[in-house]
Write a structure and sequence with these properties.
This protein has 19 helices and no strands. The protein has about 350 residues and is an all-alpha fold. The protein has one domain. The longest helix has 29 residues.
Length: about 350
């Protein structure tokens, strides 16, 4: 919620949590599901989230009205997920008894200088996000601050890495080369402890290139589907068949989730239903925040559940857990759209407005 990005959360804290879970013998699939559940709650309710802002703009509703509306599905879904993970924690798969976790985790303190000062880059990122600095610049600036801080406070580790990559032996030049190498190709360490090495030896833009290509391909494919009118021809019969509010809600969900599967990108799955169904919701006297909540639950939240979707591919890549393995444990991402459709059938928290005729909508 502080930075408004599920990707950044999963790619930083999430990676560490899944790595530690693996070291402790805890199921990485369940841990990944918990990480994604928490990350997407924050993504939905943060006023800094690009998908939250985009949804409110597409449906033409006030941002904070949209967030308050989302809370009616997001908070209960989060409580359901928290209860589910509590049960899994008590009655789930057993933890390996033979792992000397205290010794292995203590080794991290011997390799790195672990101190609250290390949180400065994260706090810097939060400040930039609050000031609405573009995400790419905020992430780059925070990464550079982290690199400069590492060169000062993690001197031994940086020196060892500089030697390993054959960079300059001069302190300043070697540190600069090390920082850029880590950002481009990732960090690697040979501590002699396999679990710690697997936890820390990762990252860099190079590891994300396949995911970036997938995102480019997904956006291109989705744009072609919209340009040729194929999506509209599929959706219009669904609208005509949706005689009740519940069926209309189900149609929006099927469209959003279907686009996540067919087009492979959450932005397409978010934008197109918002545009296609906006007039129909207005004609039926349904306030726009109903559609904005439903579109977010259908498009944004379900995107990491599809392996070839840009979000599913990203989460699987950074967390090191295949999408289909963590899918059953992404409890929030399953419960939130289910609650949204359930509200449509029951009428709970369905806000009414004055119906708008087709001529008025135009």
């Amino acid at each position: 919620m502080s930075i408004g990005s599920s990707w950044t959360t999963a790619g930083t804290i999430g990676v560490g949590l899944v790595g530690i879970a693996t070291m402790l013998g805890v199921s990485p699939a369940i841990t990944a599901g918990a990480v994604i559940s928490g990350a997407y709650l924050g993504d939905k309710l943060s006023p800094l989230s690009e998908t939250t802002i985009l949804t409110a703009q597409m449906v033409e509703v006030d941002l904070y009205t949209h967030i308050r509306s989302q809370a009616w599905t997001s908070v209960p879904a989060f409580l359901i997920a928290a209860a589910g993970f509590t049960v899994l924690g008590v009655a789930g798969p057993p933890v390996r008894d033979a792992v000397p976790e205290s010794i292995e985790l203590a080794k991290l303190g011997e390799i790195f200088w672990i101190n609250p000062v290390n949180l400065v880059p994260l706090l810097f990122l939060v400040v930039l996000s609050v000031r609405k600095v573009p995400a790419s610049l905020a992430l780059l600036a925070s990464a550079l601050v982290a690199g400069a801080q590492a060169a000062v406070f993690q001197r031994d580790v940086v020196t060892g890495f500089v030697t390993e990559i054959g960079a300059s032996t001069q302190d300043v030049i070697g540190s600069v080369q090390a920082v850029w190498t880590v950002m481009a190709n990732g960090f690697s360490i040979n501590s002699g402890i396999g679990d710690i090495d697997r936890l820390l030896s990762r990252g860099g833009m190079d590891s994300m290139l396949l995911t970036i290509w997938l995102i480019i391909g997904a956006v291109t494919f989705g744009a072609l589907l919209e340009k040729f009118g194929l999506i509209d021809r599929l959706v219009q019969p669904m609208i005509a068949a949706a005689k009740t509010t519940g069926r209309l809600y189900l149609s929006v969900f099927c469209t959003g989730f279907g686009l996540n599967i067919a087009a492979g990108d959450q932005y397409i799955a978010l934008v197109l239903p918002s545009r296609i169904f906006r007039v129909e919701f207005a004609k039926r006297g349904l306030a726009p925040q109903n559609l904005s909540r439903l579109a977010a639950d259908s498009g944004t939240v379900t995107s990491p559940l599809v392996p070839w979707n840009s979000c599913g591919a990203f989460m699987g890549a950074v967390l090191g857990v295949p999408t289909l393995l963590y899918l059953p444990f992404a409890l929030f991402n399953i419960a939130s759209p289910a609650l949204s459709v359930f509200y449509g059938y029951t009428g709970f928290k369905v806000v009414r407005a004055e119906p708008v005729t087709e001529s008025e909508g135009a």
